[in-house]
Specification:
This protein has 129 residues and is an alpha/beta fold. Helix content is 35%, strand content 22%. It has 4 helices and 7 strands. It has a 5-stranded parallel beta sheet with strand order 2-1-3-6-7, with helices on both faces. It has a two-stranded antiparallel ribbon with strand order 4-5. Helix 1 crosses helix 4 and helix 2 packs parallel to helix 3. The longest helix has 14 residues. The radius of gyration is 13 Å and the shape is globular.
């Protein structure tokens, strides 16, 4: 099987080291180039602005703060992403209802496969608005 995420750059925004490494490894097995992982919303926003990314995996709580600025920026740029969080889905605003959600603990390989499905649904990943 060909590496289905080959040539794609995926931002990982996760502040828990071992979870970030598991996500990174699962994405790399599918051929992705992982950007990060980054551990804060500010670092994630900087990566989105400065680096050419195609998709993202986003924890809702980065360094003790729940902030949807990163998700808003990914949406504004039409970049596909999934949430990876320990929080109840009820904390996610309705504007993100269509975004995939993985509640911790989760199978990182399944998360990576879901992101692949999201990427397949977006025929031109990384297309900015």
């Amino acid at each position: 099987m060909e590496n289905p995420l080959a040539m794609l750059r995926v931002l990982v925004a996760e502040d828990e080291y071992f979870i970030a490494q598991d996500i990174t490894n699962s994405l790399a097995l599918l051929g992705a180039t992982v950007v990060g992982p980054v551990s804060s919303g500010n670092k994630a926003l900087r990566a989105i602005a400065e680096l050419d990314i195609d998709a993202a995996v986003l924890d809702l709580n980065l360094e003790g703060t729940i902030d949807f600025a990163v998700a808003d920026e990914l949406t504004r740029r039409n970049l596909p992403f999934v949430f990876a969080t320990g929080y109840d889905p009820a904390v996610i605003p309705p504007r993100f209802a269509r975004i995939g959600l993985f509640e911790k603990p989760f199978d990182t390989a399944e998360l990576a496969r879901h992101l692949l499905d999201v990427m397949r649904d977006d025929p031109q990943p990384g297309a900015s608005n």
